[in-house]
Amino acid sequence: MAMANVICIKWGSLFGPEYVNRLYSGARRNLTDEVRFFCMTEDAEGLHPDIELLDLPREPYLEKMDAALSVANRQGAMRKVSLFRPGLIPDLEGPILGFDLDVVITGNLDDLLFFEPGKVAMRADWVEARRGRKTGHGSVFRYDPALHGWLYDTLAADPTGEVEKARGSEQRYTSIIAQERGEFAYLPPDQVVSFKHGCLHLPPMNYVREPRLPEAARVVCFHGRPKMSEAVEGYHGSVIRHTLPCSWLREHWIERAREDLGPDWG
């Protein structure tokens, strides 16, 4: 039976287990094949029993990486590279689609999972692109563990140098090193969108219309503010960052997950 592989990582207390459970529900509702969903974490309390758990490792390069990250003021961001460790999931076959926890899945993911086979695939970062930089955005990433173990090995070999070169940014590290190897592709920009840049109306319409959901969007990323929990209820951070309560976010992120998994998990 064909399987669709999906992975995320959760450490610390910034995100509760409901973020993982809702992401799991969104993935399995929006992939055609049966889903294997993995979560790397040090705290599995509250996670749905069908989620496959991976221990959050203490990597042998962790101390050097953390020392370099403290200088770059991006403490902890590069722990995601543990997801690329060769042999992490011994029986896994095929590509895997990775997500940060601050995203909501709003459409079918098949095209993203199978986009540009054999490549590391990420969406172009919105801010970096405006500055003429080629950095990918780390909220959604597709890779093949059988092909891309060098994403882990390169950092493990020189954690200080790689963190410094990437200026502490995991998404810059991942995308630039893949580009240097000729093994990178940008995910379709209309399918992976930013809530801030693609959904909010400009003043004054953001005061009278709720945020829009672009027709082709499959994933909406909530980098920066407002956070998902804020956007659901409505948010005022500034004249530009004002938003009315977002009904489609509530539907896709909360209501459909509860219908799918039951109220105890969604």
Quaternary state of the chains = single chain
Order of strands in the sheet with the most strands? 3-2-1-4-7-6-8
Taken in chain order, the helices and strands follow as EHEEHEEHEHEHHHEEHEHEEH
Count of DSSP strands? 12
In short:
With 266 residues, the chain is of the alpha/beta class.
Would you kindly provide a written description of the structure presented here, covering whatever features stand out?
With 266 residues, this protein is of the alpha/beta class. It contains ten helices and twelve strands. The protein has helices at residues 17-29, 62-72, 110-113, 126-130, 150-157, 159-165, 170-180, 195-199, 228-233, 247-261, and strands at 3-10, 34-41, 52-55, 96-99, 103-105, 120-124, 136-143, 184-186, 192-194, 219-221, 235-236, 242-243. A hairpin with a 5-residue loop joins β11 and β12. The radius of gyration is 18 Å and the shape is globular.
Identify the notable features of this structure and list them briefly:
seven-stranded mixed beta sheet, 12 strands, 266 residues, 10 helices, three-stranded mixed beta sheet
Blueprint of the fold:
Elements: E1 3-10, H1 17-29, E2 34-41, E3 52-55, H2 62-72, E4 96-99, E5 103-105, H3 110-113, E6 120-124, H4 126-130, E7 136-143, H5 150-157, H6 159-165, H7 170-180, E8 184-186, E9 192-194, H8 195-199, E10 219-221, H9 228-233, E11 235-236, E12 242-243, H10 247-261
Parallel strand pairs: 1-2, 1-4, 2-3, 6-8, 9-10
Antiparallel strand pairs: 4-7, 5-10, 6-7, 11-12
Helix pairs in contact: 1-10, 2-6, 5-6
